[in-house]
Amino acid sequence: MPPARAEVAVTGLGVVSGWGWGVGKLDAALASGGTSIRPFVRFDHERYPTHVAAEVPERRAASESVGREASDLSFADTFAIAAAREAIAGAGLPGELSNHDAGVFFASCTGGGFECESFYEAWRGRNLWRGPRRLLASHPVSRPGEAVARDLRVTGPVETVSSACASGTLAIGLALDALRTGTVDIAIAGGADSLAHITFGGFNVLQAMDEQPCRPFRAARRGLSLGEGGAVLVLERLSEARRRRAPIFARLEGAGASGDAHHMTAPEPHGRGAAEAMARALRDADCRPDSVDWINTHGTGTVRNDLAEFHALEVVFGAHLDALHISATKGSVGHLLGAAGAIEAVATVLAIRNQRLQPAPGGGGIDPAIRVRLAREPVAASIRRALSLNMGFGGCNAALVFSSPGLGSEGAT
Fold this sequence. Notes:
Helix content: 25-40%
CATH superfamily of the largest domain: Thiolase/Chalcone synthase
Number of strands: 14
Oligomer: single chain
């Protein structure tokens, strides 16, 4: 069994987002500073006050990425499988992992919610026995991870996390623990969710949605924008990745989690829970706050969440916050709910790999109550170590610490 502090490497990345199918499209889009949040066509949203979301384009691309069986899968399952296949291929691993000690650690909030809504609409129209009853099988939030395990022939542990918007980050943390303790040699970690009436309508009822694409930390922000897609990271112990000469995009150094114990939907106003999650991740990574060069924030664009997150950053980073650049991936791809932490982890790894700041989309000045350096241009920067934070309903908080592959002990405590 490997030592508990075994170093862990990111050797593969896969993404499906509002920008399209593949990591390359996301990488180019993050550098552009643009947004994929726009009017969408998945379902009729005329009755709602907002009308934009980051919808995955080109449904036919699903057949190219997943095969003919895409027609029998939910949107979330399709996103999950496509991202996992891309990540596995990029890591130089075979398409079937039955001969490897592998596990799947996945996140989702709605699973096949859209497909179940489609079945309900058929039932309401008295077409129950003619409707596609197979759609009901998409309902469990565990389905995307199970679909990945079946597709890749993974026979190790298959674990699903559904803790609101922190789910993807928590799933990656579980994968890190499994690798450190020797439970698995290869971890497929990520998440997938799709647009659905229940989430789009629910956030509109909560008055948490912006009529325009979300503008995290901006003074004129009015709320979040939903997105959909999937993201996967392949994680391995660094020693094994080097032995098989796998590409190493970054190291995953630490993970931390916490609970606000405050409110069902609102964050703790002073960000105490989020601060604790970041502090735990830094302790787990055995590094100081001032060794972090860049932060990928939760950055939803809601008034309360952005302000609470800023207070959390103040608590953890103190005066060092003035020197830190931050960004907010949700301005580009929307809020992917259970998959948010996964796609934002991929974005964080890309920033480290490219040594380039990712500009936060959205115009206008920063809220004067929030003192942060929001990246505005895709300029070169030294990003040796980065932190990704997520905050979810119910007060779930989670953070990850990534570093460049060549970073030694500098910044260690």
